Amino acid sequence: METWLVTGGAGFIGSNFIRHILAQNMVKIVNLDKLTYAGNLLSLSDITHNPDYTFVRGAIEDLPLVQDLLCRCRPATIVNFAAESHVDRSIDGPGQFIQTNIVGTFQLLEAARAYWLQAPPGTKAAFRFIHISTDEVYGSLGSSGRFSERSAYAPNSPYSASKAAADHLVRAYHHTYGLPVLTTNCSNNYGPFQFPEKLIPLMTLSAVAGKELPVYGDGGNARDWLYVLDHCRAIQAVLVKGTPGQVYNIGGGNEKTNLEIVHAVCDLLDRLQPRKDGHSYRRQITFVQDRPGHDRRYAVDAGKIRRELGWNPKETFDLGLRKTVEWYLGNPNWCRETLRGSYYGERLGLGTTA
To answer: Are 175 and 305 in contact (CB under 8 A)?
Structure first.
């Protein structure tokens, strides 16, 4: 079997992707992750003893480490999930986002280019480097329209700016050096193993803990929601059938405002784990100061990947959300250990810290 190097594989999307691929018994996976607060080996505890899986602790910006890993493992594919990804944290401290998302991607591209150039002809022809990015690089939409692969970049947060820079580097390495790269820009993911500072797990865990449910501004900021396993299937489709040098937008076709999401979580919890006083969890909703520079609306046109690669999302939003909320309710140990010493549900992203 060939080997794939997955970077950032202990994070939310990366861990789901690794589990999805290993279940098919078609490739070996080497997972390179530096285990920041959002990277958690508990998310992969069920595959620790799989002979086709290897974990290496380290950062993509560590060029000698990556070079050595490529030399030893000889991967046919590099899947780059490694990134700092939370907008609020980028507002409070952008430096690490620049280091990981820009410098790290550059170092990974440098190592990949050197490895690819010296590869045997057959290996060189089949090699792929796929970069996992976000729809946030396109900025904020008005009340209508969707982002396509032709949309201009207009990032509005340090996070999205750092991802936009990484996207441009990946594109440049294809056009300048011929490196066979692919880029995907996805909408908001949700599902199991997501770090609980993100909207759906935060609202779920805060609600059952009896805490307030903070909604930014008027709650009208809209996002397109994509179930994580549908995203994993899309990435695999791009790897198998995508054209090097191309960009593919991935969206779930589920545009919801933040307030609609919070209401849906509350309504689910009312049925799955009702409050002892009989009232709805909606009583815990409170509106708080908006995030600085909060993009009003994202929506993704996923027509290209549907037409050219035959991918379509399988999960409905209602069922996907139910699966997600049930997973968090059923995995209190994962939630407790993941949060230990790293995050306590506090408000981030007001830009008041250096």
So the answer is: no
Question: What would the pLDDT profile of 33-77 be if each residue is shown by its tens digit?
Answer: 999 888 889 999 999 999 999 999 999 999 999 999 999 999 999
> What is the C-alpha end-to-end distance of the chain, expressed in Å?
48
Domain residues for the domain of 43 are 3-192+226-255+293-314
Cα 334 from Cα 331, distance rounded (Å): 6
Tokens 């990946």 sit on residue? 170
Angle between helix axes 12-22 and 228-241 (nearest 10 degrees) is 60
Segment 204-260, tens digit of pLDDT: 999 999 999 999 999 999 999 999 999 999 999 999 999 999 999 999 999 999 999
Residue 335 covered by a domain = no
Q: Does residue 250 belong to any structural domain of this protein?
A: yes
- Specify the pTM: 0.93
Catalytic residues, which ones? 135-136, 159
Q: What is the 3-state secondary structure (H, E, C) of 206-236?
A: HHHCCCCEEEECCCCCEEEEEEHHHHHHHHH
The reply to whether 197 falls in a domain is: no
- Give the strands of the sheet with 255-257, arranged side by side: 188-190, 222-227, 255-257
Tell me, yes or no, whether 200 lies in a domain.
no
CATH value at residue 19: 3.40.50.720
